[in-house]
Amino acid sequence: MRTLREASLAGWAALRQATPGLAVAVVLAVVARGLAQEFAAGAGGLPKFPLSPVMCAVVLGMLWRNTLGVPAWATRGLNWAMHRLLRIGIALVGLRLTLSGATAIAVTALPVALSCLTVALLAGIAIARALAVPRRLGLLLAVGTAVCGCTAVVAMSPLIRARHAETAFAVTCVVLFGCIAMLFYPWVAGYFLAASPLHAGIFLGTAIHDTSQVIGAALIYSQQAGAPAALAAASVAKLLRNLSIALLLPAAAWLTQRHEAAQQPAAQRQALAERAAAAGRARLVPFFVLAFVGFIVMRTAGDALLPASPLWQALVNTGYSASELFLTCGMTAVGLSVAFTDMWRIGWRPLAAGFTIATLAGGCSLLLSCGLLHFFG
């Protein structure tokens, strides 16, 4: 077992290795913010066009990756920004909420989240069968769309004995269609749900695949519409979807074990049973989700105990700024991870299945969100 000093030295060494890639993400994020400000000000005689810094960061990263390429020395730092830094930013979004506010959002978002989850899972299985997509790949596409994107795909893959190529295909589809939705759905929300940041956030939180993509879309919408409440609503709606993985992973492992048990020798049946049991023991809720809830509790306690404290308000505002900075840098790294050439390696059947599942889930979310806004305000 490593000592605390050894662990600290290893952590600093990893941070030093990640620094060049982090610097790339920060520089591109700063450039993206500057471009967004120029567009908003109507620079060069162009008409004023409010554009989110996050949208600029993602598009700039995608263009950079697919034209100039990403050097190998930047890969480690960009991965750190895309996973660690981005998740810290997501967790800090919890400071925008109190327990009462989060509960109110969750009550409104829960029926939408459950309906979209059901539609994506059932449609995914049916569409994969209709298009002759392998069963495991179809299940990965459905779970990735319904629950929490790449995290769900990677967690589900070993439990259903998916091949590496199937996992890679599913992750590529989630990244591709999730990024398209992240850039397109904020405009859809602005058109249909501009009257209510709450319902716009619920739509974005239940219609888009990965947590990072949901937060990116909500930031785009909130920055362009001047509605920060949409970010909090999208975060809570996505949290509800993420929590469903705690039920789906053990269920998928158990169903796979039952499906394959009759066709396997006794030793392999035992291994399948052990894998299903391990799924039930694994940590199924990501740490950043727990941290998100922790920051909600912290905000609730701070507002109750220090309601008029300038120091507490300064701390909360610092958390807001840090969250937006980390999210923008993380989303720049997400853009730098998208390779257009991966799309052509998948084949049209998985692409068609992923697109159809994503469209159905997004349509279901939009329909229900508009219905809630119309009937309940």
Question: Could you please describe the fold and organization of this structure?
Answer:
With 377 residues, the protein is an all-alpha fold. The chain is 81% helix and 0% strand. Helix 5 packs antiparallel against helix 6. The chain is globular and about 60 Å long. The N and C termini lie far apart (57 Å). 47% of the residues are buried.
Per-chain topology:
Layout: H1 4-41, H2 53-67, H3 75-92, H4 99-130, H5 135-146, H6 150-156, H7 164-192, H8 197-207, H9 211-225, H10 229-243, H11 245-261, H12 266-281, H13 287-305, H14 310-336, H15 341-346, H16 348-376
Helix pairs in contact: 1-2, 1-3, 1-14, 2-14, 3-13, 3-14, 4-5, 4-8, 4-10, 4-16, 5-6, 5-7, 5-16, 7-8, 7-9, 7-16, 8-9, 8-10, 8-16, 9-10, 9-14, 11-12
Short description:
This protein is mostly helical and 377 residues long. It has helices spanning 4-41, 53-67, 75-92, 99-130, 135-146, 150-156, 164-192, 197-207, 211-225, 229-243, 245-261, 266-281, 287-305, 310-336, 341-346, 348-376.
